[in-house]
């Protein structure tokens, strides 16, 4: 098995910020943004904090608030699909490019994003709902996202200052933000910095520093605290500030600006907490996958215990099981929640989620051996699985355990195209898959634990 039997001493000194920074790439996927968005926002926001002469304690809180600003991003994805009938990732990306204070921009946005490509018979009721209930719907979407994000930050043990920053990300200086319409200094300072950093990063990616600064200047006093914009004007004169946003190794730059006296290092307990928190983000993406990661984890641990894995191996199996579907954050809810049969193109998108999982988990040094274990759960023993077509002994023993646990939960839980399946029927399907797809000995081990 490639599950580590112990944690090497060097990894015990790994920074928590490096792990969260790497895993934040999953949040970027969910928001429809280029990988590294949250890390680049951290670069921007920390420079603003330095201009404000924040002390090291506050700068440490700001650092994590910026990395975790989108922690609740998956929680409103299903609702967005239900309301707009479009790819939630595209909608989220495009929404960040408009000025929500301009009625014309909002109307054009709704017109172009409601059930694109569908008939007028389907589009008109959805447009009418947005016209009559748009404010209420928007407030609910923001509230869900902000509260879920704050809960994740709290689950990870961060301060109220970090949680409040995540909760207040979408508030605007003039009181026309969401979800609570806070105004001016009612908005937590770190939330004000995070929103400014977010807009700078997005518009820099769209059109460079000139467009980024033009956008910020136009929204000073409405979206943004004018004092923060003043400090940003000074930063904008520094070429090195902008160079950081173009550095493909932005993670290395972030290491240099994290307050040294407040660096958090990981241990087994912290790794479990991180895995559990990101599993909650994964499972919040769709009502049909709610609780899936934690249930797969439970079934995998039962199987692992039944076949004699050591306690340390079970620790790592648990983490792999919790994070096995992290790549699904990059799949649209228009596919995940589709009640009918998927098209070939849609299924191709589904088949990419293990690739996303591999890419995200591989960015975390401590998860080097865990990444292929977690991301191979759709491979089959006969070589007909995806995405790599691995066969027989090419599939890690721990991956086989997760595969059995994943299939059992998938067939026994409710899905958009059918109701929940009785346990006996689910186990019968696992029996049929034993040999060509699943390891029969591990299926038998699962049965003994139920």
Automatic annotation (TrEMBL):
Keywords attached to this entry: Hydrolase
Record-annotated membrane-spanning stretches: none
Domain HD-GYP: from-to ranges: 267-450
SMART domains, sorted: HDc
Protein name: Metal dependent phosphohydrolase
Single GO molecular function: phosphoric diester hydrolase activity
Pfam families: HD_5 (PF13487)
InterPro entries assigned: Cyclic_di-GMP/3'3'-cGAMP_PDE (IPR052020), HD/PDEase_dom (IPR003607), HD_GYP_dom (IPR037522)
CDD domains according to UniProt: HDc (cd00077)
């Amino acid at each position: 098995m490639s599950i580590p039997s112990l944690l090497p001493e060097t990894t015990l000194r790994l920074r928590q910020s490096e792990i969260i920074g790497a895993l934040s790439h999953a949040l970027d996927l969910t928001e429809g943004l280029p990988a590294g968005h949250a890390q680049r926002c951290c670069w921007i926001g920390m420079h603003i904090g330095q201009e404000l002469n924040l002390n090291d304690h506050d700068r440490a809180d700001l650092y994590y608030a910026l990395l975790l600003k989108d922690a609740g991003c998956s929680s409103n994805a299903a609702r967005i699909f239900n309301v707009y009938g479009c790819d939630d990732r595209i909608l989220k990306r495009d929404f960040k490019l408009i000025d929500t204070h301009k009625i014309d921009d909002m109307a054009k946005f709704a017109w172009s994003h409601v059930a694109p490509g569908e008939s007028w018979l389907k589009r008109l009721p959805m447009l009418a709902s947005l016209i009559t209930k748009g404010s209420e719907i928007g407030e609910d979407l923001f509230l869900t996202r902000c509260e879920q994000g704050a809960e994740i930050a709290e689950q990870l043990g961060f301060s109220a200052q970090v949680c409040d920053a995540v909760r207040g990300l979408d508030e605007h200086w003039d009181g026309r933000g969401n979800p609570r319409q806070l105004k001016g200094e009612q908005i937590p300072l770190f939330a004000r910095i995070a929103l400014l950093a977010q807009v700078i990063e997005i518009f820099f990616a769209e059109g460079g520093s000139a467009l980024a600064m033009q956008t910020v200047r136009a929204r000073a006093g409405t979206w943004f605290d004018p004092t923060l914009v003043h400090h940003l004007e000074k930063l904008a004169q520094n070429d090195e500030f902008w160079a950081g946003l173009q550095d493909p190794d932005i993670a290395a730059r972030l290491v240099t600006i994290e307050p040294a006296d407040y660096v958090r290092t990981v241990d087994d307990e912290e790794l479990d907490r991180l895995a559990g928190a990101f599993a909650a983000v994964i499972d919040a993406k769709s009502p049909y996958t709610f609780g899936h990661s934690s249930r797969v984890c439970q079934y995998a641990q039962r199987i692992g215990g039944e076949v004699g894995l050591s306690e340390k191996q079970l620790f790592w199996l648990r983490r792999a099981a919790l994070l096995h579907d992290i790549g699904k954050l990059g799949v649209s809810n228009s596919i995940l929640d589709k009640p009918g049969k998927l098209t070939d193109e849609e299924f191709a998108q589904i088949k990419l989620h293990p690739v996303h999982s591999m890419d995200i988990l591989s960015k975390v040094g401590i998860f080097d051996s865990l990444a292929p274990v977690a991301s191979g759960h759709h491979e089959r023993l006969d070589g007909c699985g995806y995405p790599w077509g691995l066969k027989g002994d090419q599939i890690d023993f721990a991956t086989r355990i997760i595969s059995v646990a994943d299939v059992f939960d998938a067939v026994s839980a409710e899905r958009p195209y059918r109701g929940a399946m009785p346990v006996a029927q689910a186990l019968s399907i696992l029996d049929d898959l034993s040999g060509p797809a699943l390891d029969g000995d591990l299926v038998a081990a699962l049965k003994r634990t139920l």
